[in-house]
Design a protein that fits this description.
The structure holds two protein chains of two kinds. Chain A has helices at 8-22, 27-44, 57-83, 104-116, 142-161, and strands spanning 93-98, 120-125, 131-136. Chain A is mostly helical. In chain A, strand 2 (120-125) and strand 3 (131-136) form a beta hairpin. Chain A is globular and about 60 Å long. Chain B is mainly α. Chain B contains four helices and no strands. Chain B has helices at 9-35, 39-42, 46-69, 78-104. The chains are: A mainly alpha, B mainly alpha. The A-B interface holds A 17, 20-21, 23, 50, 71-72, 75, 78-79, 81-83, 85-86, 90, 92, 94, 96, 102, 104, 111-112, 115-119, 121-133, 135, 137 and B 25, 28-29, 31-32, 35-36, 38, 40-41, 43-45, 47-48, 51-52, 73-75, 78, 84-85, 87-88, 91-92, 95-96, 99, 109-110, 112-119, 121. Chain A: One of its GO terms (molecular function) is monoatomic cation transmembrane transporter activity. Chain A: Belongs to the CPA3 antiporters (TC 2.A.63) subunit E family. Chain A: It is found in: Cell membrane. Chain A: It is a multi-pass membrane protein. Chain A: The chain crosses the membrane at residues 7-24, 30-47.
Chain lengths: 162, 121
């Protein structure tokens, strides 16, 4: 079972991706999608020997919803900052965030979240993964920002991946 | 496809509104790229186009073609999903390269945070 499906979630995702791209559930496409879902993870497995363990789908759903809302909020903030840049330049700053999350996949997900939210840019991660350097477009209150970041993004990711 | 099918007015209205909102945010992102001066500040506005910009256009496409074809046409939503997976790769690379260059040329950026040993996985 494990040798046939080294990453079952990835297999399912690829299968769904194929059917969505073709907008059809004809037998031919079902077969091609299944082939893709089975073969791609097997071929990719030697490149990535470490396996991700994903848990708690409800936490994942809540996190995705939360990130979606934050993206919209951050978009409005950055747009406002750009339009006002002539009079009041945005208070951009680098922020050091001490991290508790150590799982490689969790950190990858965290880097995705910070990049997708327009107001923040993942700049550097310490080699031992204890510290993250983040560039923030408009920083108001540094301790509050760090608390918000750790509470809304890092803690759910620790629940999901660790 | 039957060209003479009359689309409901609300659909045209919502689709147009979504397209205009998406384009507006993409435009503001481009303006930001021109207007802002500092490199790291300028990395933020283009994200407007790859988030809200792409979301609104994808949503408009899904809505329009789902009503037109009388069945859910969801594949446009793959664009925002794949964008959110691939955009971080280039953004991280740019940020790291800029930090490295600015450090070597002695500009005012934070010290390297890398400490301890690489965990190697």
């Amino acid at each position: 079972m494990n040798r046939l499906f080294p990453a079952p979630l990835l297999s399912v995702a690829l299968f769904v991706l194929w059917l969505l791209l073709n907008l059809s559930v004809s037998p031919g496409n079902l077969l091609l999608g299944a082939l893709l879902g089975i073969l791609a993870p097997i071929l990719m497995a030697p490149l990535r020997p470490q396996h991700a363990h994903v848990r708690r789908p409800w936490v994942i759903a809540k996190l995705i919803g939360r990130v979606g809302l934050d993206v919209i909020h951050s978009n409005l903030q950055v747009a406002r900052g750009v339009l006002r840049a002539g009079n009041t330049p945005p208070r951009s700053a680098f922020v050091h965030i001490p991290l508790d999350l150590r799982d490689a996949h969790g950190l990858a997900a965290l880097s995705m979240i910070t990049t997708v939210v327009p107001g923040t840019i993942w700049s550097e991660l310490a080699l031992d993964r204890s510290m993250l350097l983040l560039h923030v477009f408009d920083l108001d209150d540094e301790p509050a920002f760090i608390e918000h970041f750790k509470h809304t993004y890092e803690r759910p990711l620790m629940e999901i991946f660790e | 496809m039957n060209e003479s099918v009359a689309l409901p007015f609300w659909l045209e209205l919502v689709t147009a509104a979504l397209l205009l909102t998406g384009s507006l945010f993409a435009l503001i992102g481009a303006i930001g790229l021109v207007r802002l001066k500092e490199y790291f500040q300028r990395m933020h506005p283009p994200a407007l186009a790859s988030t809200i910009g792409a979301w609104c256009v994808a949503l408009a496409s899904i809505l329009y073609f789902s009503v037109l074809k009388q069945s859910p046409v969801l594949h446009a939503w793959l664009i925002p999903i794949l964008l959110s997976i691939t955009v971080p790769v280039t953004t991280l690379l740019l940020a790291r390269a800029a930090l490295f260059r600015k450090r070597t040329s002695g500009e005012d950026v934070p010290e390297e945070v890398s400490s301890g040993r690489d965990r190697g996985n």
